[in-house]
Specification:
Layout (H helix, E strand, L loop, with lengths): L2 E4 L3 E7 L2 E3 L6 E4 L1 H20 L9 E7 L4 H20 L21 E5 L4 H8 L1
Parallel strand pairs: 2-5, 2-6
Antiparallel strand pairs: 1-5, 3-4
Helix pairs in contact: 2-3
């Protein structure tokens, strides 16, 4: 639920601690302005500048899938799995489970072409996600 998605030909992932660690049983707490929101805005600004200059990446737009880590390594791992879940389902050829009400197979969007991930800001989160 804590995600931003911008369409593009190539997608950059982002993992930022937009929220602080929540109390026990709650993954996310209050907003982290300097360490979370500012970094998120910096990435969006950079993408805007790159996409706005046709000399940098002609005929290619960069998109983004930015996820909130909530300053918690286990929550970040769950979020990062969202980066690869669609790709794994498409690559396996199973297409996932489920049927439409009329009995036909569901139409699924093609997996994102995630080319890299920016973040995370904490070593514990980066190690968890890298594994």
């Amino acid at each position: 639920p804590h995600a931003i998605r911008l369409e593009g030909d190539l997608t950059l992932g982002g993992l930022f601690p937009v929220h602080a660690r929540g109390p026990p049983g709650v993954p996310c707490g209050g907003i982290r302005k300097e360490q979370g929101i500012h970094r998120l805005e910096a990435m969006l600004y950079a993408l805007d500048r790159v996409n706005g200059d046709p000399r940098l990446l002609p005929n290619v737009t960069l998109g983004a899938r930015i996820l909130d880590t909530c300053s918690r390594d286990t929550y970040a791992l769950e979020q990062a799995l969202a980066f690869v879940s669609n790709f794994v389902t498409a690559a396996s050829g199973t297409g996932g489970q489920g049927r439409c009400p009329d009995g036909s197979a569901p139409q699924r969007d093609p997996p994102e072409r995630l080319v890299g991930v920016i973040g995370a800001s904490a070593s514990s989160v980066s190690i968890m996600v890298a594994n």
